[in-house]
Amino acid sequence: MSLRAYIKTHNPKFFSTLKNLHSFLSKSMEDSNTSAGKSDPTPPFDPLQPAVPISYPLKTLEELESRAYFKSFHFPFNKATVKLSTGNGRGAASMHQRPRILVCHDMAGGYTDDRFVQGGGNADAYAIWHWYLIDVFVYFSHNLVTLPPPCWTNTAHRHGVKVLGTFIMEWDDGKKLSKQLLLTKESAQLYAERLTELAVALNFDGWLINMEVTLDPTQIPNLKEFVGHLSQTMHSAAPGSIVIWYDSVTIDGDLSWQDQLNDKNKPFFDLCDGIFVNYTWKEDYPKLSADVAGDRKFDVYMGIDVFGRGTYGGGQWTTNVALDVIKNDGVSAAIFAPGWVYETNQPPDFQTAQNRWWGLVEKSWGVIQNYPKILPFYSNFNQGRGYHIYVDGEKVLDTPWNNISSQSFQPFIEYPGDPTTQPIQVVINFKEASYSGGGNITFKGTLAGDTFTARLFQGELLLGNSPIHFTYSVKLSGNSLLGLALEFLSAKKEKKTVLLASSGNTLLTMNRFSKHFTYVIMPRQVTKLEKEPGWVIQESSIEMDGQILREIRAVCYKSRTEKSEVIVKDKTASLDPSEYYAVLGHIRVNTSAENSDFPPSSSWIVDSQYIEFTSGSQGSKNLSVKIIWQLKDGNADLFPNYNMYVEKLKSTSSRNPNEMLEGAEQEYLGVAEVESFYIFDLVIPSGTSSLKFIIQVCSVDGASQKLEDSPFLVLKVEAS
């Protein structure tokens, strides 16, 4: 899609040679694979057979037409469960009437670590966490039908970002497929309807259509029918959905990238919701495209290739050059392959380089998504990867993992180009203990002045006449303290600020901060965790009727100046009076001061499917099984995910048939986003009589049901 565009534009003769070479090599590879197939010990992928759930694309029109995907074992696991957050509670979100940012994923060909629906074991897996800078996310690969893995849809929807799959035809294979697709008006409608069915069933928001093939002019009417019918059926079946056309084949049937909106591609633009313009455009093309689009200029997405292949401004670390031109001309941007940072191992490390690169995007474009918008609001700053997992301050997993579905709302942390200029370093920390999930925000450095503040969230939350409650967890070293600064705006645009102070001397705190904030609120309750020393839960309440919560900031300050002791990784060290260290584990904002109510265990139906025992070593067994559950009555949407555990039980006497194995504990298996979980090759020690699978229900406000109250299933172990 990218390099081909550049070669086609600048050297069409070489492009033709390259196409012929591609066809020859493809045919040679097919012949080689055919001859080698008899000796290949790896069985072909069979989507009907139980296996570790994965996401995968469709590669043929036959798969699409037959609806074969819906018969796949993997299909139920691939349904995204997080509804698109609109912030108004009124259903589908329309596109913002302003310049927008579309991000086209295209990371290493797609379906890498993210293909494992229930998560993988790579703490360094690729992820995106700057969702507040994105309007639309496209999952891209070079397969015919690219279905977004649900992890991307779940986390994007959580942040208010639409997600599109990709339908692409390219090279000689694509030309052959286009004949089948565009054979008749009816065939064009059929495949459009099949694409709509997939998007609706998997809960993503539409399609990017990329027809990178030369067509016969007689095929163009049916291509227009395909684009228009796909747009109509998507809009009807999923209000708020969008279909975007990629600037490739023209209305004349030529594969000729226009690099702008003009009369060669506008007929397709007129039939859908936007155009992704190829990225080899000139400086005046955004303005020319805006003129052609008229009142739909925000539906023109000017492409930028982050790899810099012929793109205006050079991409890479100067991507902002193109962004500045695009925004100045009032159209939208389509950023292609931001995974460049990851794929090219930009120094010094992915986390730092990613934050620096997206900082360029924010500097050019500004923040475009706001949260919190609705309550409850919860964030544990989890990026969907890490080296451990905690639940309510207690470690349940101590091995590397990745699962983008587990991302909570991502903080709007500002990253300076030179971090050494900041007195306090603010970072997402994967290595130190978390309160929940696999990360935290660590504040570390030298506090030269009285306070240091750091942006956490920029919201758009209208408050009613009920109090709202803030709960957050902190670990504080020495005399370091951490509070939250809230900024409110009234209907008359009057600003008020509130400090939710850390626990301490009330009188001293009031005297110190009252002149800087409209209100200073001390915690109404402070709880120290017994199981995990160091974590302190602070709860505060405020009432701001009619005000809009616009910003949440962390406030770093100190209670005294004498030398203190700091505990880091269970080691005690001296802390200089000016040194500062604090950890923020989570933030919860809701309208109730009480914990979430969970249905009792008896309210759930729990069952098992696809049970398979196999023999292991030294008398052990292995088990593969699918656990499914369903709430009998009530709203399961209140429970977005479920932590899975197993207890391995043995019978030691007739009086106690389900005694826990000596030394065994509840073993964490993973997290489910749907009401099912597949366990593959679970090792069962010799002597185990039964397995107790526990489904820990988690609520939208981040609370987790007590394990002893959670639904469960006991499965007897087959005798040898």
Q: Could you provide a short overview of the structure?
A:
The protein is an alpha+beta fold and 720 residues long. It has 13 helices and 35 strands.
Write the layout of secondary structure elements.
Layout: H1 3-10, H2 12-36, H3 61-66, E1 101-104, E2 136-138, E3 145-146, H4 150-158, E4 162-170, H5 171-181, H6 185-202, E5 206-212, H7 220-237, E6 242-246, H8 266-269, E7 274-277, H9 285-293, E8 300-305, H10 319-328, E9 332-336, H11 340-343, H12 350-365, E10 377-379, E11 385-386, E12 389-391, E13 394-397, E14 401-402, E15 424-429, E16 440-446, E17 452-462, E18 468-476, E19 480-489, E20 495-500, H13 506-513, E21 519-521, E22 525-528, E23 536-542, E24 548-558, E25 564-568, E26 571-575, E27 579-590, E28 604-615, E29 621-631, E30 641-650, E31 659-660, E32 667-672, E33 676-684, E34 690-698, E35 712-716
Parallel strand pairs: 1-2, 1-9, 2-4, 4-5, 5-6, 6-7, 7-8, 8-9, 20-21
Antiparallel strand pairs: 3-4, 10-27, 11-14, 12-13, 15-16, 16-27, 17-24, 18-23, 18-27, 19-20, 19-24, 22-23, 25-26, 28-29, 29-33, 30-31, 30-32, 30-34, 34-35
Helix pairs in contact: 1-2, 6-7, 10-12
